[in-house]
Fold Penicillin-binding protein.
Amino acid sequence: MNKQLKFITRTVFGMFLVLFFSVTMIQFVAADDLRANELNQRTVKNGYKVERGSILVDGNPVAFSTPTNDAYRYVRQYSDGELYAPITGYFSTRQGRTGLEDAMNQELSGTANSQFFTRIMNTINGVDPQGSSVETTISAKAQTAARDAMAEGGFEGAVVALNPKTGEILALYSTPSFDPNQLSSNDDAEIIKNYRQLSEDPSKPLNNRAIAGDLYHPGSVYKLVVASAAIESGAATPTTEFPNPAALALPQSTAEMQNASRTTCGGGDTATLQQALVFSCNIPIAELAMKMDRDEVPKMANAFGFGQDLDIPLAVTPSEAPIPKDKAQVALSSIGQLDVRATPLQMAMVSAGIANGGTVMKPQLVKSVISPDLKVEQEFSAEEFSKPISAKTAKSVAGMMEAGVTDPGGLAKKAGIDGVRVAGKTGTAENSNTDDANGVPFTLWFTGFAPVDDPEVAVAVVIESGGGAAYNNLGGSYDLPTEVGKRVMEAVLSE
């Protein structure tokens, strides 16, 4: 009998320990994850009973909650919804959360660990729960300039602008965009209808082209990574000369590479690395890449951020720069084709790192979290992301980029700003896996920074389909993203 009682006692005690452990895990360890789960409808509905904090740009609310007379008590609203949708995302009773509404949900809803004592005091004092506000790093002038420049041309694509010294994101724009107000009403039927229309739209307005969605071949802006790898490793300097044929037979292949001009890179028998960047020639860059180890350029790309997980705090799709399998692939990869793909944010990070003396700062979209009584609960400081190149290498590459703007034949000359030293690089990528109406799909790029001597802004612009039907979807329209980038840089420098 005693033996049986001991067995039962131990079994009950063991079950109690398991129960205690499970409750502890659920209530304390997994509580935040369970609250954050988008399938947790109780959390979503409770979120509407709290006056959610605002999302601020230059101190002004671009996302905020207003009282209602329905069961939800509040409705989320967005001013300039399409302009800031790539940043704010949406907060919806039916479709969950995206953007900062999701990434900063605990702070906005007042459930973050840093707000624990505030919740206790509000309960004691009988104060209704209220979320904190999130101040972004976005410049309203830069964001508006990006929107206006893209809209005037009727372009699809994205624009990113960074402060090279701090990593602060000054503009993050994606177009086509959408109005988050369409998904934030408390009318479920209306939300379902609007979401279906947006999700089925072939232009994919819900995709944040600046940091996610379908990545782009970077084309010739990737040559900045090749030049950085070559100079840092000692394989070349800006004055290093390369054979200058009009066509290059790729090793172990029947394929042939040409420059975009279908001629030589300048008129001489040789071309320098600087000429290759200024005139955006393919052949000298491919020759240079094939001289180096086949993993040299991908290693440099990785050091700049390719292939690395990043949150800003929005989740960023990693850019791709795999190691080529042979010399032919080395050549094609070196000009930003084949399997190389990038987000505009990634290419802005490349320019920002060059501008900042070889140090890439971690991009950040949130400046601070502000409590309802206007106290700063969290303040985000600049953080180093990587140091892919030395200050000497950065100065050499920056000099070649500046020549691309100042040289009369430079393809980035349209980026010039009176009285300001500007560095820039254009790019055109052929996207053979895309089939537009004319069968000639091109992606246009510009990246650069200013002022060269004391950088305040680095920018990357991508325009899909060569600027669209108005420009015959052709790749010769490289001035288009350059002019967009110039306007965004001017907006930042005017502040």
Observations:
- Residues 405 and 413 are 4 Å apart (CA to CA).
- The two ends are 86 Å apart (CA to CA).
